[in-house]
TrEMBL record:
This is PurE domain-containing protein. Residues 119-249 form the PurE domain. InterPro entries: P2CMN_synthase_LarB, PurE_dom. One of its GO terms (biological process) is 'de novo' IMP biosynthetic process. GO terms for molecular function: hydrolase activity. The lineage of its organism: Bacteria, Bacillati, Bacillota, Clostridia, Eubacteriales.
Length: 249
């Protein structure tokens, strides 16, 4: 939406021709911005509460930089980029300052906002090998304005490590449970937490784990009724959902 279109809507509200609610709907559904190779959804933050996130894998460094710059030019104070490798991040960082995490391949342009959610999100993972996914969830949740509690290496092979932190789980607004192998962590966390648990299967494990499929199926069949599941290695998606839960009125 350009300046003239926005001014016309605001003028309509001032004149009484458009109600404030109708004006908000028009702004939410504002046209995207076409930059040739991408259509930038410049009004997504009005609809979802957070702006468009850039998925870096499969995009060139030049494309990532152009999309990020356009979002910044349209007023986004925090731009999240997922699955971006170090060389692309270095290229973008020449003109747009990035905070880059090599382990999760996640970058943030702009400022991480102060937490403005209703409570805390717990990000827990079964083992150190799952940290790449946990860090993606952590950075995403923080970029979306959440207070995050980190709980790493608490897998069921040493379940006392998890039980020792049961109080943190009981006080959470949402929990992200990340595990590979047989994916048992999600069910155990679901039995301890009184909030929604978003389970993330990872591709960590030996041959019969089938790149995370075993953990995925186990989590889908969890007997803990408060457990839902996202796709394999999708720490970003889990954090997005957890953030929406944490920001509900």
């Amino acid at each position: 939406m350009n300046k003239e279109q926005l001014l016309n809507i605001l003028q309509g509200v001032q004149n009484g021709d458009i109600s404030p609610d109708n004006a908000l709907e028009k702004i939410k559904l504002a046209p995207y911005e076409d930059i040739g190779f991408a259509n930038i959804d410049t009004s997504r933050s009005l609809r979802h509460g957070v702006g468009e996130v850039i998925y870096g894998e499969g995009k060139s460094a030049e494309q990532i930089r152009a999309i990020a710059q356009k979002l910044i030019d349209n007023g986004e104070k925090t731009v999240l980029i997922t699955r971006i490798d170090e060389s692309k991040a270095e290229y973008v960082n020449r003109t747009i300052t990035l905070e880059y995490d090599n382990e999760s391949r996640t970058a943030v342009a702009g400022k991480i906002p102060e937490p403005n959610g209703k409570g805390k999100i717990v990000v827990c993972c079964a083992g150190t090998s799952d940290l790449y996914c946990a860090k993606e969830a952590l950075i995403t949740a923080k970029a979306f304005g959440n207070e995050v509690v980190e709980m790493y290496d608490v897998g069921v092979a040493g379940i006392h490590r998890l039980l020792d932190k049961a109080e943190l789980l009981s006080n959470a607004k949402a929990v992200i449970a990340i595990a590979g192998m047989e994916g048992a962590l999600a069910s155990v966390v679901g039995g301890l937490a009184s909030c929604p648990v978003i389970a993330v299967p990872t591709s960590v494990g030996y041959g019969a784990s089938f790149g995370g499929v075993s953990a995925l199926l186990a989590m889908l069949n969890s007997c803990a009724s408060n457990v839902s599941v996202v796709n394999i290695d999708n720490g970003f998606g889990a954090a997005y959902i957890a953030s929406m839960i944490n920001h509900q009125e």
